[in-house]
Structure formats: C-alpha cells, structure tokens
Amino acid sequence: MKLTWSEASVFAFVWACALGYIVASRILEWNFERFLPSNWYFVVKKRLAQPEAKFLRTKKVPKKISNVLEELLTLMQTGNLQKSTVRMDQIFQEKVVHEIKLLEGRGLSRQLHFTNVKLSEGNAKKRDFRHWSDSGREWREVIVEAAVSDKYLHRDSGKVIHESIYPHGSILLRQSRHIRHNEVGEKDRQKEQRFYSKYSEIFCPSCGANYVPDNNGCCSYCGYSLQVDNAKWKLL
Question: pLDDT averaged over the chain?
C-alpha cells in the first residue's frame, strides 16, 4: 500500500499529536481537564453566580468532608463565632477573629461561591481524609478542588466591592485530635502500655514545643490549654 505525500503528512501529524499527548499527560503530568469547555472562564463565572454555588454539596465529595468545610466557611462569612461548633487551634482562631473584626470595622461582609467541586487526586481514590498519627495525636487532611468566587460586599447595601475568581482553586482542611483510649482497641494492658510509650514525649499542638504544663495545665511557652475535649477534631 502506497501513501501519497498528503496522506503521509496527515498520518504523521496524527501520530505526533498522540505522542505529544502521552508525553504531556504521563511524563510532564499536564492536566488537560482545564481545557474542557466546563472549565472555561466565562462558563465558570456564570456557574458561580448561581444560588446553588453557595454550597459544596456534590456527589464527588462525601458529606463528612463537605459538612465540616461548609461549617467553617459559614463561620468565616457570617462571623458568628459564638454559635459555631467548629473547634479550632488557638492561633487559627485568633486569625479568624482578626479577619472578622477587620471586615466588621470596614462595614464589609465576605461571600464565597463554588463550582466544579471535587476531591484532589490524593483523596479521590478512598473518598476520605488522609490519616496519620504523630506524637500522641491523630491527624486528618483533605484537599478539595473547585472554582472559587471570593466576594467582599458592603454589609448594609449588599453591593459587591471586590470579587476574585479562581477557576482552579483548592481548599486545604487539616484537623487533629488526641488519640483516645477507647480507640486503641487492645484489651491486653501491657500491649496498650507499649502502644502509648512511643507518645511519652508530647508536643504542644499550638506552638510545637515540648509540652511542659504550668500550674494551670497550660503550655509554659505559648499558654495553650490541654482540654478534655481535645479528643474531638480541631482545625489547625
């Protein structure tokens, strides 16, 4: 079978495109999803203006992840720290309170919208948090990818003062808690003691220093209080 110059050129072009795609996606790890019509800027901007974009609820993100994220984002937008049940590290809470006070002082409110929400590649396989343990604490972390609209509005009139759109944004959620006695799952007392022996040196979850409690049970370096409810998940 003989090919003409035009047929050979088309054949070579197709193979070059296929080879280029393989090299770019497998070796250079380029993400071609960004070029899909659903990720075009004007399409994303239109979706972010819809009422449902206020929520992170989607089949691609389990409720146990989206519920925690929505509770935190609601707190950041409303500034109602008193009614929130979100547990936060002392330093993280101070940053949130500082931002809330700045917005209130300028008569502004914040509004976040999301679309194209999905878990990152590292979390999508198990559809769960990534878990690990360190110094007597259990940690969990998840990265949620989404197109994000971050608006600052006038608190009284609702007029948009500034809007930033991130077509390929991501949200990192990291929490920790103390490993609880009933989670060890070991009835043998000696094995249980060996399990906890590697956590004999405890680090302050707030400043990272060796946890040396003062007379009030607080870290002698930063004043962090080791409370009983530290068995619950806390944002960092």
Answer: 77
pTM of the full structure: 0.63
Mean pLDDT over 34-60 rounds to 82
Q: Give the position of tokens 């770019």.
A: 24
90, 235 Cβ separation under 8 angstroms: no
CB 114 within 8 A of CB 53: yes
- Mean pLDDT, range 38-61, rounded to an integer: 85
Predicted confidence at residue 228, as pLDDT, reads 41
What string of DSSP letters covers the chain? ----HHHHHHHHHHHHHHHHHHIIIIIS---GGGGSGGGSHHHHHHHHTSGGGG---BTTB-HHHHHHHHHHHHHHHH---SS----B-HHHHHHHHHHHHHHHHTTEEEEEEEEEEEE-HHHHTTTS-EEEEETTEEEEEEEEEEEEEEEEEETTT--EEEEEEEEEEEEEEEEEEEPPGGGS----HHHHHHHHHTT-S-B-TTT-SB--B-TTSBBTTT--B--GGGGS-EE-
